[in-house]
Amino acid sequence: MLKKTFMFVLAIVFIASARDGQGAINFVVGIPQGDFQKSINHNGFGLGGHIAYHPHPAFAIGLAGTFLGYGSESRYEPFSTTIPDVTVEVTRTNNIAQLFLMLQAGVPIEVVKPYIEGRVGFNYLWTETTIKDIQGEEDVASSTNFDDLAFSYGGGGGIMFRVWHRRGGARRAHGKVYAVHIDAKALYILGGEAEYLKEGSIIIHDDATVEYIVSKSTTDLLDVHFGVVLEF
Questions:
Q1: What domain range includes position 211?
Q2: Residue 14, phi then psi, degrees to nearest 5
Q3: CB neighbours (10 Å) of residue 186?
Q4: What is the Cα–Cα distance from 140 to 145, expressed in whole angstroms?
Q5: For the chain, what is the domain count?
Q6: Which of 47, 50, 44 is nearest to 21 (CA)?
């Protein structure tokens, strides 16, 4: 399964980079919805983007991904009971990664392009604890405390504003158009039920045992994107 997914990703990237490609990078705010919002009660922040095949000015199909952090905790501890004179920073982060097959359809207007977008894929939620050297801020060790995967799908719309373009090729008047757009969109993503941790979900007892308080709910998100799209 992983091998097939990897080959599919490579195929999309190769096609998109060869001709009629579209790439994007966005700042993303993930706003939990429904039961997910009741459980987490604050937004996630991160980055997103996509790489797509753009066979026609009105259509694009490809792969899209988003990474969001929805909570973190830090503390300073002795490196170990046998090395108490070395202090490290212990950071715990709660994260969501989304990977989708995307389909985008828009009005092929030159300067301003409104569009709709559909996505289908999954939400991957995980909590990771990392030990860092407080002097060099380098990771010493890390461990995934808990993770889960949920099917997800959804869609929404956005608008692109072209800020730069040129025509390439030997006959520039009729050649390929290269363009840069400012992009803003909102996508409602319906996420399936998953188990996950949040801030305060890991309790370390005095006897050095660890207790996980696991939350469970659907993982719906309203993803708000703002960034740059390159057509090439």
A1: 2-231
A2: -65, -45
A3: 15
A4: 16
A5: 1
A6: 50
Give the CA radius of gyration of the chain: 21
**Using DSSP, how many helices (H) and how many strands (E) does the chain show?**
2, 12
pLDDT beyond 70 at 172: no
**Using CA atoms, how far apart are residues 56 and 113, in angstroms rounded to an integer?**
13
Of the candidates 116, 30, 11, the one whose C-alpha atom is nearest the C-alpha of residue 71 is: 30
Token pair, residue 183, equals 């992009």
Q: Give the bridge partners for 122, in sequence order.
A: 99, 151
Structure tokens at 116: 């709709």
Whole-number Å distance between alpha carbons of 224 and 101? 18
Q: Are 210 and 203 in contact (CB under 8 A)?
A: yes
Write the DSSP string, 106-151. Answer: E---SSEEEEEEEEEEEEEEEEEEEEEETTT--EEEEEEEEEEEEE
Encoded tokens for 174? 């009729």
pLDDT digits (tens, 9 = 90+) for 187-204: 999 999 999 999 989 988
pLDDT digit string (tens) for 104-142?
999 978 799 999 999 999 999 999 999 888 775 677 788
Single out the residue of 10, 13, 9 nearest to residue 22, CA to CA: 13
Q: CA 8, CA 151: separation in Å to the nearest integer?
A: 18
What CATH number has the domain bearing residue 180?
2.40.160.20
Q: What does the block give as tokens for 103?
A: 């389909």
- Given the structure tokens 């380098």, which residue do they identify? 138
